[in-house]
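sorry for the late reply, my laptop died twice this morning and i had to redo everyting from scratch. anyway the thing you sent over, i finally got around to it. pasting the sequence first so we're on the same page, its 143 residues, then the predicted structure underneath. double check i copied it right bc i was rushing
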Amino acid sequence: MIIAEILEKKGRGITTVDRDATVADAIALLARHKIGALIVLDRNGAAAGIFTERDVVRVLDDQGADALFQRVSSIMTADPITCARTDRISDVLATMSRLHFRHMPVLENGVVAGIVSIRDLVIERLERVETEAEAMRAYVAGS
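ok and here's the structure:
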C-alpha cells in the first residue's frame, strides 16, 4: 500500500499557520482542530516547516509562558522530512519510528498535498492485517 491510499481515506486537507503567528495562536489552532501538527507557511504561502505539539512542550519547558508570544518560525522544524504520495506505508512508518516523530508532510510536485500521522499508518497496517487474517480464516474454513 502507498501513502496516496491513506490520503484518499482521510482526505487531503491540511491545517496551516503563518510563520509570523504566535505560538499561542498555533496552539489555539491545534486545539480547535484536535490535531497534533500544523504546516507552517512562509510569506509567499509555501511550506516553510512543521509545528507540532512536541515543539510546544519543548519550548514551554525551556522558556516558560513567555514562549507563547514567540513567532512560530522561531521554534518550528524547518525543512521537515517528507514523503511522497507514491511512497510505501511500511517505508514511511519505518522512517517515523526510527527518527521518533509522529507527523510527516506529504509532497506532490514540491507542494504539500497532505499530512500523515503515525496513527494513520498504524491503523492502515492493522486494517490490512485483519483483512488478511479474515481471508486466511475463510480459506481454511473452505478447505
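The helical segments are 3-10, 23-33, 53-63, 89-99, 118-142.
thats about all i looked at so far, will dig more tmrw
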